[in-house]
Amino acid sequence: MRRVVITGIGVISPVGNTRDDFWKALVGGKSGIAPIEQFDTEKLTVKIGAEVKNFDGADHFAKSQHALLDRFSQFAVVAAREAVADSGIEITEELSLRTAAIMGTGVGGQNTQDDNYRRIYAEGAQRLHPFTIPRLMMNSAVSHVTMDLGIRGPSYAIASACASASHAIGQALQYVRSGAAEMALTGGAESCITFGTMKGWEALRVMAPDACRPFSADRRGMVLGEGSAVFVLETLENAQARGAKIYAELAGSGMSADAGDIVEPSVDGASRAIRGALAEAGLAPEDIDYVNAHGTATQANDITETKALHESFGDHAKNLAVSSTKSMHGHAMGAAGAIECAATALAVRDGVIPPTINFTEPGDGCDLDYTPNAAREMPIRAAICNSFAFGGLNAVLALRKAEG
Amino acid sequence: MSDARENIVDIIASFSAVDREKITLESNLREIEIESLEFVELVFKLEEEFDISIPYNANEAEEFQKVEDVVVAVEKIIEDQKG
Asked: Which of A43, A205, A222 is the mutation pick for testing B, counting most B CBs within 10 A?
């Protein structure tokens, strides 16, 4: 099996519209959570979200291309362009045929769906815009990535709610590891902060009205986010041969299903995914220095995740630096795993742990080191990035510091 | 029990697999198999039935332990929002 590394990263997030702005904000403990601005929130109980700010598609796309792109696809293409440029790779005709593009998304073109279904059902419109279907379909983002960048290998979208991007990245890892592809563009994209989606989430009663405080005693639930992160994956050999800079090795992925409840997480399912990632990466629990937690700030997740970390790491659990960057960029659903993998890769590269902000005091059953409120400089030999989704679908990625 | 109150208990009971005769104001929700998913469905049904808004966050301390807790809360909200 070949070793796979990350040579390019692109990010559109609630705390920055480039990879570097994103990382700077995370290290600075900056929050992207604020009152929602995209629509009137008067009839909502929860009025906050982590929106991508100052993003105008017209800055990135000519009119004809723009018309085909839902907001989630726009995020994906811009992030993918940044990743490819960052990697310095030249996508030749030959390489394009051997490059996979696999992207996660939870709900696809939600804005397009909302707007157009409202027109037809509520406003009595006679007809819909012809691009309605191509914009809202779940694969729209990844299709446009392949079109914009000329990718011709195995390409598709993956859906598993909050774990979609982690599953996509794990899948892409297998393609490159096994030689089924020479290179992959992978990650996730989501833009689902609409009035209807907020109403749907409110009904589940797990949204915080004030802030996102993972692992804190006074946490009141999650905050919805949006964005995209895309990675260029290559073999270590190819990357070294062309002198590419390497963020980190993507050493393993672990995936499992809880076979439990549609919304409540299970310790066992989470532990199996963690241990699976370590096993594939050839890492022992004691080798892990940092955990980028799923850390949604719900009562259920934070306790279950803490237990799963104890179960998987034993005595070493207390030595882990854990943090939930969702405290800053919110829960970007199908893009979450990718945005968080970006945070993890950058943390590994720089030896800096981004904090869990809004931390007051630890909640019951939350007894680990959650890197509260301020970033910490600390060499990271290896890290894991957790995603535990509704429907009990879990994906964990393991990253190792690049040599040299 | 008044009819109005009986109605609320009937709605709560409809989310339990336990026989209606066995459900009283004192019944513990968990014990009558109303777990977190059934509970959010129940909240939705009560809001729809009475056209009220019930402020409930699943992440906060458990204020609804017994059937009576729900009944009293709903009656108060009906009075505040509709009365």
From this structure: A205
Q: In this structure, are strands A99-104 and A183-190 parallel, antiparallel, or unpaired?
A: parallel
A/B interface, count of CB pairs below 8 Å = 36
The answer to whether A217 and A231 have CB atoms below 8 angstroms apart is no
Q: Give how far B55 is from chain A: nearest CA, Å.
A: 9
| Active-site residue flag, A341 | no
Q: Are A229 and A10 in contact (CB under 8 A)?
A: yes
Look at A206 and B59 and tell me if their CB atoms are within 8 Å: yes
A268 and A155, same structural domain? no
Q: Are residues A190 and A311 in the same domain?
A: no
| From A167, A331, A341, A385, the catalytic residue | A331
pLDDT of B4 above 80: yes
Query: Is A385 annotated in the active site?
Result: no
CA dist., res. A46 & res. A37, Å (int):
13
Superfamily of domain B3-82: ACP-like (1.10.1200.10)
As a whole number, mean pLDDT of residues A170-198 equals 98
B61 pLDDT above the threshold of 80: no
Rounded CA separation B23/B32 (Å): 8
Domain extent, residue A225, equals 4-241
- Asked whether residue A134 falls in the same domain as residue A265, the answer is no
Confidence band for A1, pLDDT divided at 50, 70 and 90: confident
Residue A165 and residue A230 in one domain: yes
CA-nearest of A298, A291, A289, A249 to A274 is: A291
**Which pLDDT value is given to residue A238?**
97
The DSSP string of A265-282 is --HHHHHHHHHHHHHHHT
Rounded distance, CA A72 to CA A189, Å? 6
Inter-chain residue contact A220 with B59, CB threshold 8 Å: yes
Can you read off the two tokens belonging to residue A219?
Answer: 């946490």
Q: Is residue A167 situated within a structural domain?
A: yes
**Coil vs helix vs strand at A297:** coil
Q: Is A310 annotated as catalytic?
A: no
Dist CA B19 CA A86 (whole Å): 64
Please indicate, yes or no, whether residues A114 and A194 belong to a single structural domain of this protein: yes
The pTM of this model reads 0.95
Of the residues A217, A241, A265, the one at which a domain ends: A241
